[in-house]
Amino acid sequence: MQTIHLVLTGLGNLGRRFCEILMEKDAELQRRYGLAFSMVGVADSRGTAYDPTGLNLAEVVRLKRDGHSVRAYSGVGRTDRTTTDLVAEAEADVLLEATPVNLSQGAEPGLTCIRTAMQRRMHVVTPNKGPLVVAYRELRDLALQQGVRFLFDGTVAGGLPALNLGRRELRGAIIKRIEAVPNLVTGYVMDMMTEGLSWDEATARARQEGVLESDPVWDLEGWDAAAKLVILANVVLDMSATLEDVDRTGITGLSVDQLTKARERQQRYRLLARAETRPDGDYVLSVSPVPLAPEHPFGRLGRKQMGVAFTTDIYGTIVAIIDEPNPVPSSATMLRDLLDIYVVER
Amino acid sequence: MQTIHLVLTGLGNLGRRFCEILMEKDAELQRRYGLAFSMVGVADSRGTAYDPTGLNLAEVVRLKRDGHSVRAYSGVGRTDRTTTDLVAEAEADVLLEATPVNLSQGAEPGLTCIRTAMQRRMHVVTPNKGPLVVAYRELRDLALQQGVRFLFDGTVAGGLPALNLGRRELRGAIIKRIEAVPNLVTGYVMDMMTEGLSWDEATARARQEGVLESDPVWDLEGWDAAAKLVILANVVLDMSATLEDVDRTGITGLSVDQLTKARERQQRYRLLARAETRPDGDYVLSVSPVPLAPEHPFGRLGRKQMGVAFTTDIYGTIVAIIDEPNPVPSSATMLRDLLDIYVVER
Predict the structure, then answer these.
(1) Measured between beta carbons, which residues in chain A are less than 8 angstroms from residue B341?
(2) Does B147 have pLDDT greater than 90?
(3) Is the CB of A322 less than 8 angstroms away from the CB of B343?
(4) What is the pLDDT of residues A124-137, one digit of tens each?
(5) Distances (CA, A) of A14 to A158, A306, B251
(6) In this structure, how many other beta carbons lie within 10 angstroms of the beta carbon of residue A231?
(7) CA closest to A22 among chain B residues
(8) What is the mean pLDDT of residues A263-289?
(9) More confident: A96 or B217
(10) Confidence at residue A346, expressed as pLDDT on a 0 to 100 scale
(11) Chain A residue with minimal CA distance to B317?
């Protein structure tokens, strides 16, 4: 039995649910993979808790569910240490970085957490798009230099292994085109409007259901989809793209009329992220709402579904779709990445 | 630059096309991965050719395209060595085993080739279902014992990375159900009949187009789909299943009437392979033609499409579909597996 020591920064929806998955699967992971995971440190925006002998995950989950900070964790909760302090000081094998995206603040504190962890020779697993969009190459190179793994399959399309598909299952192929529907909120809002709700009603409903987060512009103007496309482009297509390289149109300009007319033609609108080859071999990146015919791979995507399609030279066209009825799969990507580090392939 | 020495047994459609892919991608693979592949030995049913300094792939391809055996390869072609002799004698890093399935003959010569290669500490890559169906656990254990890799992603659903998805992208999950459409011929024949052709006309057309191979029973009675399901079950679900464990119904009993009635209801028949959890936790394996509604993940599969769907506890439901307009993707799975062995993940 190998014991892996973890530090988790960020205890929002993803982080807290990951703790729940780890609790539920503890015995199963020991039995199937011979791996015991011990959470030694956790941090939220208001404090930290660190215990080298392992925290009680049930207690962490209880505190967060009750709206408290982990600084209230009995005995080892701290108010005088920040998220980045924890990463700089904790002894652990892996950093799980799940703080919010925060692109407006230079992707902090995620970026500093990841750099610090790598410098301290910890592997890094993150579903946080921010640091990837801002500094993918720097972080990839730092990981290589430090001899640690850097995995982030959860940054694109929730629980769908979109990046892993592109970067390892399509090895040896030239990818001619990527199409993706990596954002749930926009599909939800457009479907609601197609069913007769106004823009305000549809976005209010999305907010009520917890699909639309605090900053609606991020999702509805297509920034979220663009960020995911940039990650796909840099990781799978080996580009050096930034958000500015994406020709981006959000869904705020769409009218109910456009949506209902599309429905009459059996089409369904989705915010489509695309990387397409130009004649000179470069890729053009775009995000825009597109009416999709039923024959299109994403023409029948439901409200809780995301997808990615790769058109290749030697593997034909491969489409993958996830049905994600709740946020568990997005959290579970951290487990996928963790097991990728520690389960030996043979 | 690392040079990898290969031996390829079987030069039918898959084997020959693999040689073509390797020729076309030689410079690209050196540039992208620092890997140079040298084919030192090839075998077909009538002879072998072996040159430790590397065979000329263009010459191998030319001979096969012209209907010759590689025993006619200038200088090093042999008529006195068999496929298994070549594997026993050649110095190479990897065996690519692409002889025909031959379950009626104990999966030979593939099974002996694989055993011999592993005993000689060669990695093994194979798209040949036969040895997997007959002896998966034995071969897996032998590979472990010998410290070699054993990869066979091409055995299920052509170029779709169905096995890789199930065994590594879903790590940590409990798989509740697998549904797959892993066979192209049956879909082709059923679609033709739906369009008004009789059984005899539809199968004749499939034969003309090269979709239906010499032994029609293997495909049409569902044995091919059952073999793929057995491999999925053993590799992804850790079962010890055999062909006898699959409740199998082929498409030979289907009437034009059933097919056209399904079409009137907007349904499409596909030969569906399923692994479903029983209340006691075991899986039930079945293969049968099923009319699929448009909402079903495979309800709109085209004639050149195959798919697999995994219903899981923590990754939601993940569906992958390949559009495989020609047999190139199936051959290319050998390249996928090869790169899996030699490209270091980081």
Answers:
(1) none
(2) yes
(3) no
(4) 999 999 999 999 99
(5) 11, 18, 46
(6) 21
(7) B172
(8) 95
(9) A96
(10) 63
(11) A323
Residue B269 has pLDDT above 80, yes or no: yes
Query: Nearest Cβ partner of A318 from B174, B322, B325?
Result: B322
A45: amino acid identity, one letter: S
Residues of B in contact with A170 (CB under 8 A): 336
Across residues A216-220, what is the average pLDDT? 91
Nearest CA of chain A to the CA of B324: how many Å? 5
Chain B residues near residue A345 by CB distance under 8 angstroms: 149, 168, 340
Instruction: Tell me what ipTM this predicted complex has.
Output: 0.96
The answer to whether the predicted template modeling score (pTM) of the entire model surpasses 0.90 is yes
CA-CA distance, B18 to B8, in Å (whole number)?
A: 9
